Amino acid sequence: MLNAYVFSDGGLKGSPVAEGPIPAETVWLDLISPTEADDTLAEAFAGISVPTREEMGEIEQSSRLYIDGEARYMTASLLCGADTPTPVMLAVTFIVSRGRLITVRYGEPRAFPSVSGRLSKSCPSGITGEIILIDLLEAIVDRAADVLEQIGADVERISKRIFERDQGGENANQRYRAILSHIGRKEGLVSYARESLASLQRLLSFLGTETEGAAVSKDSKASVKSMSRDVSGLSDYAAFIGDKLQFLLDATIGLVSLEQNNIIKIFAVLSVVLMPPTLIASIYGMNFHNMPELDFAYGYPLALCGMVVSGILPYVFFKWRRWL
Fold this sequence. Notes:
Layout: E1 2-8, E2 11-16, E3 28-32, H1 36-46, H2 53-56, H3 61-64, E4 65-68, E5 71-80, E6 88-97, E7 100-105, H4 111-121, H5 129-163, H6 172-207, H7 218-283, H8 299-320
Parallel strand pairs: 3-7
Antiparallel strand pairs: 1-2, 1-3, 4-5, 5-6, 6-7
Transmembrane segments: 266-286, 298-318
InterPro entries: CorA_cytoplasmic_dom, CorA_MIT, CorA_TM1_TM2, MgTranspt_CorA/ZnTranspt_ZntB
Membrane topology: Multi-pass membrane protein
């Protein structure tokens, strides 16, 4: 799919382009899961080479950030679907050439419909691809901040659940299993967010670099510098959340070990408590003919009382020593 955005009626209006020519006044050309025909159409219009999905997925910096003639190519990995059970990393390419912006993506990052919707209502008549790129990057950074804020709030709730008093009737096994599952999901989300922020930091550094044939305006430089500071701060916050998640993981595993130790301790106490009664029952269960107690009228009730007392005494001793 190929969307062409043209300034009209005080806003940037987008319209899909199927087979017809792309309007010459197009400022922003957005390629969404493009076909070979879409790539050919965009290349003929902008006079550039559109990278393939495989090329966008390469991790070398030289393959993601480079200049080809008058076109500046920038590919960033963005976190998508952070609010869904299956978040993914999506490679998005931004190409600035001759005052136009060409974007290539195979997904729907939230920043794109947000920026296109805002610019369709109002934007300056002299808007350029560079200005649209700055708006997109600012929206992406804001979205990353929102995601990290939500993760931080979720981590705080997980922390309270771990260290709160155990509620009666709640199965400890199910509780710790759910906590470990939540920690695992949040850790994966934080890892994606840190990867995305690192990718954005490299892109912003490249965008703010003066290069012959691909200069950046003074206002854009100021915006890029401000976003770089924001991304650096968000990276530090993401690292803090990652450290806290590791602490919560260690604490949960420690509590699970304590729970297991308590269970083992109960079995150990039961074995000690039942050992004397078992000994007494074993002695008087041998049924030897010459055992003097066999002819004693109160032998059976006395043996039962001895078994009960011998079981109670170790329990009282453990309680006195505060081992239970």
